Amino acid sequence: MNIKEYTDFLRISGVEIDFDATFFSGQCFRWKKVDGRYIGVVNRKIVLVYPQDSNTFDIYNCSPEEFKKFFYWYFDLDKDYDLILKELSEHDEILKKAVEKYRGMRLLNQEPFECMISFIISQNNNIKRIQLLIERFCQSYGEKVEYKGFYSWTFPEIENLKKISTEELKRLGLGYRAEYIKDAIAKLDEGKIDFESLETLSSDEARKILKTVKGIGDKVANCILLYSLQKYDVFPVDVWVKRALREFYGIENTKQLRQFINSFGELAGYAQLFLFHYIRNSTQ
């Protein structure tokens, strides 16, 4: 990978990233595509990404030091994707096809609090509705940021949310999820949940702690573990995933599901990301 600095952007080359697949695979909710470029709010500021070709992209509002310190990790560039994708391809024919089609997809490493609240909001919602609710939430309690004529809001910090009532959250359209968000904020503020401590625990131990928050079940807990706490051995499963596994792999019960997930070892999260982005787009 090479980083070349220009007046107001960096050109990153020698790394393959499929930004459509990466940003719109259901692992994050605050990136938008406008006229071939991607606009996101990451690390508390607006960032613009302009793909040049399959192995080159320009990133605006980011210094070389910030890219090396934050975005290198955010885009999972410290991993050997050639090795990861080789192992996934050898698992079965469906995954082989998924890897071939979305080879440039990356698993994003996100900020834990934003990830937690976003996936609480995601429950029983479609992508457009999730994005709308998160945007309202940010506009109400985040800080306004601007860059090159674009403006948005940062994801709110816990300190700014502690005194917000459940009723105020419900007025944003969050419904029953408002109570879950309020409980998550309280447990984080009281130290009952500490993200740094969760990183040191096994996935099973960390999942149990996350599930002490009202409304967080296995699926949401696993999304938090995978997309913000680097627990790559987890495999988020919901009703749609179970239905797809039954149709494509003949998995009918919990024992078969557990065996299937365990067959991926530490790559279970990557398998889930590639497999279900492929299946979802193949069946639409």
UniProtKB/TrEMBL annotation:
It catalyses: 2'-deoxyribonucleotide-(2'-deoxyribose 5'-phosphate)-2'-deoxyribonucleotide-DNA = a 3'-end 2'-deoxyribonucleotide-(2,3-dehydro-2,3-deoxyribose 5'-phosphate)-DNA + a 5'-end 5'-phospho-2'-deoxyribonucleoside-DNA + H(+). It holds the Pfam family OGG_N. The keyword Lyase applies. Residues 121-280 form the HhH-GPD domain. The keyword NAD does not apply. One of its GO terms (biological process) is base-excision repair. Keywords: DNA damage, DNA repair, Glycosidase, Hydrolase, Lyase, Multifunctional enzyme. InterPro entries: DNA_glycosylase, HhH-GPD_domain, HhH_base_excis_C, OGG_N, Oxidative_DNA_repair_enzyme. Its EC number is 4.2.99.18. It is an enzyme of class 4 (lyase). GO terms for molecular function: class I DNA-(apurinic or apyrimidinic site) endonuclease activity; damaged DNA binding; oxidized purine nucleobase lesion DNA N-glycosylase activity. PANTHER family: 8-OXOGUANINE DNA GLYCOSYLASE, N-GLYCOSYLASE_DNA LYASE. Belongs to the type-1 OGG1 family. This is DNA-(apurinic or apyrimidinic site) lyase. It comes from Caldicellulosiruptor owensensis (strain ATCC 700167 / DSM 13100 / OL).
